[in-house]
Amino acid sequence: MGTSTSSSKKKVQVWKRALLHFLLCFLLGALTGLTPMSTMIFSTNLAHNSKPKTRQDFAFELKSIPTNAQQDFSQVGNRGRLIETIRIEGSQFREKGVESEEKETEKSSAQTDAFSLFSTGVRTLDFVPRKLLIVVTPTYNHPFQAMYLNRLAHTLRLVPPPLLWIVVEMPTQSMETAEFLRKTGVMYRHLVCDKNLTDVNDRTAHQRNVALGHIEQHQLEGIVYFADDNNVYTLELFEQLREIKRFGTWPVGMLAQNESRAVLEGPVCNSTKVIGWHTNEGSKRLCRFHVNMSGFAFNSTILWDPQKWGRPTLEHIRQLDTGKDGLQDTQFIEQVIEDESQMEGMAYGCSKIMVWDLHLEASGLTYPSGWIVEKLDVILSLKKHK
Question: Which InterPro entries match (predicted)?
Fold first, then answer.
């Protein structure tokens, strides 16, 4: 009986001893894990320094080269991304304490400068919308139609948007022109002037009136410009159009009837103020304004918001077909403005030619005899010659 009691006591002592060892190991591991690394490094350094140095120790510490980095946020990408450029002015080895202090100073100042530059850049990058350009082009079926429209379309494609090309045909809308306009890549509207040709003296006047009625009906806001397809235009012209507030004008270069010399028609300006006129045609000496139809543009709100500009009459502004030859341009302008004080001289003080009115085709040119120009969709059977 005594032997069994002593053996059970020994077993309990063994379990207690094992449990005590387990708790001690657990506490030691927990304390080791919670000990900061700096304390361990410090103790390691103490142990290392206490050792006698029998040979020279090699330091494998990689020292960084200090650089003066300047961040330039003035360069901004087309998609609004900020481009960071770094310029290295020089480098030299310094003591470790001085190097760390300068790094902290440069880091804080760079962050402050970057934030101030970034906020300034955001404030200066305000989006400025461009004015809508409403380009009106009358066209009809003639031998040079495709060439003229292609040339003008290639010019308009290079103009920054927004731009609306209003093409007006007469008397019907042709499938060829509609197909051509769809492939130009220019925003357009294809209109038709269905007026009877027997009652028309100048077809282009009625075609422009259709475009003016469309602009007035839909209250399109922008700068209206009559661009005939036979003229040649510079891209600089369309940049100048967006600077017009009410009515802008500029000189137009033209070839004389014999094509032996160039003539100039348009305003004479002192800066942006119109003080006179260039004219070389005797038929236009009685005109109030000596301006070519491609030598002016105006704000479209004049058509549908006359009260904004203080117009005395509420009548529709249209080009007249009853006037004498050469007087239609000035009669139209007289409906838009009162005098030269309401004009803006463009093209750098009216000193630059940005439009050329060229009539290079022969007068009275027609299709060769025997050509079929109507009902081209009809399929004719071929006859076999014997």
Answer: Glyco_trans_43, Nucleotide-diphossugar_trans
Pair type for strands 273-278 and 262-270: antiparallel
Taking CA atoms, 277 is separated from 237, 271, 326, in Å, by: 20, 14, 15
CATH topology classification for 133-357 = Spore Coat Polysaccharide Biosynthesis Protein SpsA; Chain A (3.90.550)
On whether the CB atoms of residues 71 and 113 are closer than 8 A, the answer is yes
Q: Are 164 and 133 in contact (CB under 8 A)?
A: yes
- Could you tell me the two tokens for 307? 């009260």
State the Cα angle at 15 between 11 and 18, rounded to 5°. 140
Please answer whether residues 89 and 68 qualify as being in contact, where contact means their C-beta atoms are separated by less than 8 angstroms.
yes
Q: If you ran DSSP here, which 8-state letter would residue 336 be given?
A: H
The span from the CA of 312 to the CA of 98, in Å, is 79
CA distances from 94 to 62, 66, 103, 104, 164 (A): 13, 9, 12, 15, 65
SS3 349: helix
Are the C-beta atoms of residues 249 and 267 closer than 8 Å to each other? yes
Which one-letter DSSP state was computed for residue 283? G
φ, ψ at 9 (rounded to 5°): -65, -40
SS3 of the chain: helix, strand, coil, percent, to 5: 40, 15, 45
Q: State how beta strands 163-169 and 133-139 pair.
A: parallel
As a whole number of angstroms, the distance between CA 240 and CA 242 comes to 5
pLDDT in single tens digits along all 386 residues of the chain: 555 556 666 666 777 888 888 888 888 888 777 766 555 554 555 444 554 444 444 444 444 444 444 444 333 333 333 333 333 344 444 444 444 555 555 555 555 554 454 444 444 445 678 999 999 999 998 888 999 999 999 999 999 999 999 999 998 899 999 999 999 999 999 999 988 888 788 899 999 999 999 999 999 999 999 999 999 999 999 999 999 999 999 999 988 766 677 889 999 999 999 999 988 766 566 788 989 899 999 999 999 998 888 877 778 999 998 656 668 889 999 999 999 999 999 989 999 999 998 877 665 656 566 555 565 565 556 565 55
Provide CATH 3.90.550.10 ranges for the chain: 133-357
Chain centroid offset of residue 355 CA: 23
